[in-house]
C-alpha cells in the first residue's frame, strides 16, 4: 500500500527552544520525514530560536546530529538530509532583549498572506505569554500567523484561564494550536474512522450494548530527569487531564455534523461537560512506585522522602447522557509498570441468552481494543468454535489488524504523531488540537479531585515497579465485578 502525500505550500516555521530535547527528538526528525516523503517543500524555512549562541551552520550541525540519532538508518537518505538541512536557519534569541527580536524580524521579513507562518513554542509555559506579546508587537505574525503551544496548559483552572487570556490578547482562537501528540497518532484518528466511516460499530456504541470502557496508558520508565518538574505535577495533571480525557472524549463523543475542526471539538466539549463529579475517596486510586531490584523508588528519584505526588492514577468516570448512562469508563495511567502500552478497550455486553450452556471450552467477552502503542492497531475479541470433531467447544479468538502489517507491506512507514500535527498547523487544520474551552472544562472536572487529595493529605499507595499498579486499583474494578485488561507489550 502506498501512502498518499498531499504537499503543503511553502511556509515559515519558527521553533522557539530549538536546541531543546523536544526539537531534537521530535520536531526536527518529523520535519525531515515530511520533506523526505515529498510533503514539505524545499522552499520552506525552519528558523530555530533559542538562547544558545550559535550561527545557522551550528544549528544545522545540531540538527544533523539529531537526525543521525533519532531517524532510523533505513529512512535517512543523504540527499533528503542535505536538502532538509538547507531549509534551516537560526537566530540567537533572549525573549527579554529587543535587539534579538529585531534580528528575528530581519530574518523572517514581512509576513506574506500567501505564505503560512507558524511559531512553535517548545519552551516552558511561563514564556508563552511574553513570546506571544513580542511576536504581536514586532508584527511578525501578520493576520494569518499561527502559534503552537505544548502542554501543560496550566496547572489548574485559574492558571489555564489566565494562559488562555494571555494568548487571546494577541492571537484569535482560530490561530492558537494547543498540541497533544496523542491526538496525532494514527490509531486515534482511526477510532473516528472506525466509528463514523463504517456501519458496523456505531449502532452498538451505546449503553445498550457496551458494558464498560477501559483506557490505559502505561509506562515502564520512572520520572528520570523530569523528577523536579514531575513532583510538582503528578500523574493526574501530567496525563489524565489531557491525554486520557482526550481519548475518553473521542471514544464517547457523538458523531459531528461534518469533519470540521469546531464540529469535532464541540462534540468533545459536550463529553467533558457531561462527566459526572467523582468521589475521590471511592472512585479514584493514587499510587507511587516503590523501590525494586536495581530500581530506585519514586521518592528517591525526586529526592524527597516525604513526597505525596502520585505516579499512578486509576479512576472510574461516568458520562451522564443518553448514550452512555450507566456505562463506567475506567482510566488508568502510571510509571514503572509492567509494560509500555496505550490502549482503548471497549468491552461489549454478553449475549442476552446463551444456547451453549452445555458446550465445552469457554466463551470470551467481545472486546474492541484500539492500541496506540507500542504496535498501533485494532483487535476484536470473538468467541468461535474450537476446530476439530470434539463437539461444540468454544474458544476465544482475535481478529487482528496491526497497521504495520496490514498497511505497511511494501515498506510503508507509520508516521510519528508530530509529523501530522505540524503539517496540520501549516494547513490551518485545528481538528486534532485542543480548544481553550476544552482545556478549561477538563481542569474544571479534575481540580476537585486534586483538592480532595490535598485536603486529606494521604500518601499514595506504594506499588512494586514492574507490576500493574497498587492493589487498590484492582479492587476498584473487582467491586464492580470486572477486571483490568492485562498490561502487556
How does this model look, in words?
Belongs to the glucose-6-phosphate dehydrogenase family. Its EC number is 1.1.1.49. Pathway: Carbohydrate degradation; pentose phosphate pathway; D-ribulose 5-phosphate from D-glucose 6-phosphate (oxidative stage): step 1/3. GO terms for molecular function: glucose-6-phosphate dehydrogenase activity; NADP binding. The chain has 15 helices and 16 strands. By secondary structure, it is α/β, with parallel strands linked by helices. The protein has two domains: 139 residues, Rossmann fold (3-Layer(aba) Sandwich), CATH 3.40.50.720; 282 residues, 2-Layer Sandwich (Dihydrodipicolinate Reductase, domain 2), CATH 3.30.360.10. The strands form two sheets. A ten-stranded mixed β-sheet has the order 12-15-14-13-11-7-10-9-8-16, with helices on both faces. Strand 1, helix 1 and strand 2 form a beta-alpha-beta unit. It starts with 11 loop residues before the first strand and ends in an 11-residue tail after the last helix.
